[in-house]
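Summary for the lay section of the report: proteins are chains of building blocks that fold into shapes. Here we show the chain for Cell division protein ZapA and then a coded description of the shape we predicted for it.
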Amino acid sequence: MTEQPKTRVSVRIYGQNYTIVGTESPAHIRLVAALVDDKMQEFSEKHPMLDVPKLAVLTAVNIASEYLKLKEEYQRLVEKMNMEKGGKPDD
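The coded shape description reads as follows.
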């Protein structure tokens, strides 16, 4: 099994520099970092008394919630498409 080449990308999230290593494109890594930074900034404005660890956890919980909602919606759409094709919901 061949391993995908890894990319190293420097990003800035909530005022801190990080080097992210992954197999995704640099553009994808930067986009993910920007999303996390934006969410942390947004929650920081709404909850200025939160320390950074709590702010990071709040951000992670929010992003995970958004992800699960999108995943559930995707599954509903797949099931709907399968039903329209005359297939089974599990296809």
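Put simply, here is one thing we learned. The chain has a mean pLDDT of 93.
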